Amino acid sequence: MTSSWRPAALAALLPGLLIALALAGAAVLASRYTPAWLGAPAMALIAGIALRLMMGGAPAIAMPGLSAAYGPILKAAVVLLGLRLGGEELAALGWSGAGLAIAAVAVGFAATLALARVMGVDRDMARVMAAGISICGASAALAAGAALKARQEAVTTTLAAITLIGGIAMVLIPVIAHKLGMAPVSAGIWAGASLHELAHATGAAAALDEEASAPGVGAKLVRVAMLAPVLMLLAPGGANGKQGLARLVPPWFVTGFVIAALIAWQAPLPDGLTSASAQLAALLFCAALAGLGLAIDPRGILRAGWRPIVLCALASLVLLSATFAGAWFLI
Predict the structure, then answer these.
(1) What is the pLDDT of residue 192?
(2) Among 28, 40, 56, 230, residue whose Cα is nearest residue 148
(3) What is the DSSP string of 170-202?
């Protein structure tokens, strides 16, 4: 047994973990009364930053637990996310919709990395933002940051940009789809294939039409399923710079995600258990975000300047345009 699992070491984690979980619970509750674009993840991050500003910094006694929230707790949430990949929404999506969603991940990733290179955005932030934009927003950005061992400022700045740009896109998609007379199924798939957060895609699809909801969520879940292969590609030779065949061994939380997804697909859990796992995953992701917000110096976000916001906006515009064309002409 390693020293990290000794009672004294575990006790040292409690203050920070309790603070992160308390902020996460408050964010989840508060999100019931906020607009859909300002969901629980954004509220948790804001709460963490606000508490840090009020306290003049994170207390030293909380730092081990805050690191755990952004480390093992986050990775456990990624595993639980796999249980969300049930078959009902995916069946409503169809093969053409699934193909568009997979293509959207490639387009979003390539566009973000290419634009980042042109704009001079550093590699850490570019890859974390590419994961967030192309897969599933804050969850993917956090998971990519953990896999890459990226700087915390890169992850936090990415989350701020995704929250802002994703919220705007969520409001615009239903308006544009209605104005252009887009078929509900096509519009729902467009929302699911382009919007960052699962909450964004769900909210936009619900605003479109009842018929749009299932394919919209299905398209988003296909993108979520791409989290595992993308994290394997991002991980730098495994966690310890391994070479050769050892490089092909994924991080444990990626393996767990795949196993959970297979369980959800082949042997679906009861609705109550699936719902409970989704709520727990959301709480743990929010705890990771709250811990990150409390641990990070907000001045690091300000030092990043205008480039991350513009990068997120331009890459999102490319993704929105490409998926609109696909949904309009192919679905």
Answers:
(1) 92
(2) 230
(3) HHHHHHHHHHHT--HHHHHHHHHHH-SSHHHHH
Q: Which segments of the chain does DSSP mark as H helices, in order?
A: 7-30, 40-55, 63-68, 74-81, 87-119, 123-131, 137-148, 152-180, 184-194, 198-208, 210-225, 227-234, 252-266, 271-295, 299-303, 307-330
Instruction: Tell me the one-letter amino acid at 317.
Output: L
310 CB burial (10 A radius; 0-12, 13-18, 19+) = middle
Q: Say how many residues make up the chain.
A: 331
- Distance, in Å, from the CA atom of 156 to the CA atom of 142, rounded to the nearest integer, reads 9
Dihedral sign for Cα atoms in the order 7, 75, 115, 312? negative
**242 DSSP assignment:** -
30-62 pLDDT, tens per residue? 988 887 667 788 888 889 888 988 988 888 898
Backbone angles phi, psi at 231, to 5 degrees: -65, -35
- 151, 185, 195, 328 from 181: Cα distances, Å: 44, 12, 20, 10
Which residue ranges of the chain lie beneath pLDDT 50?
1-3, 238-248
Residue closest to 158 by CA, chosen among 184, 129, 187, 127:
129
- pLDDT score recorded for residue 1: 39
**What count of other Cβ atoms lies within 10 Å of the Cβ of residue 118?**
9
Residue carrying structure tokens 């309790």: 18
Q: Measured in whole angstroms, how far is the alpha carbon of residue 91 from the centre of its chain?
A: 23
Is residue 49 within 8 A of residue 153, CB to CB? The reply is no
